[in-house]
Amino acid sequence: MNSGLITVGKVTGHFGVQGWVKVYSYTQPMENITAYHDWIVGGQLIKGIRAKKHGKTVIACFDSVDNREKAQKYLGKEIAIAANQLAQLSDDEYYWHQLVGLAVFDQQQRLLGHVDSLFETGANDVMVVKLGNEEQLVPFVMGDVIKDVDLNAKSIVVEWHEAE
Fold it and tell me: Residue 87 gets which letter from DSSP?
């Protein structure tokens, strides 16, 4: 994937007969994907997206796609946006894609692994930190567990002890 692109969803099916498609959104909340009007779908830049939340899903219509046959070529394709379309965050906020791949160190500078993925628990986000075949779950709680995130150094310092 191009480092300037962020995958934000996937086209999952048809919606009606006028070319609208169903979209599975990776954004939180799911309707945030509708704020982006230029999508890259299956490697093709599509401008002027019309998208909206519809019940428990998101639907979208692409310019010049006005029937199911024209929409067919987009089914199963991932949706990306240019990273510069993302809102600017404050200094202590991070997009998950910025954290994936960062090295995670304890306060004694011992490598615990690299961030493989993140997920929500309701109480807080959790990093999946992998070192070889070993995996640890580390709460992403700024201040208490997360002591420093340095995107330039590609590292995170945590106050965390491996499970025995």
Answer: P
Which domain CATH number covers 55? 2.40.30.60
CATH of the domain at 104: 2.30.30.240
Q: What are phi and psi of 57, to 5 degrees?
A: -140, 180
Report the helix count and the strand count for the chain, using DSSP H and E. Answer: 2, 13
Q: What is the pTM of this model?
A: 0.71
Provide φ and ψ at 109, rounded to 5°: 65, 25
Q: What is the residue-wise DSSP string for 137-159?
A: EEEE-BTTTEEEEETTTTEEEE-
Strands ordered across the beta sheet of 103-106: 134-140, 125-131, 111-120, 103-106, 155-158, 146-150
Domain termination residue (choose one: 64, 85, 106): 85
Band of pLDDT at residue 83, cut at 50, 70 and 90: confident
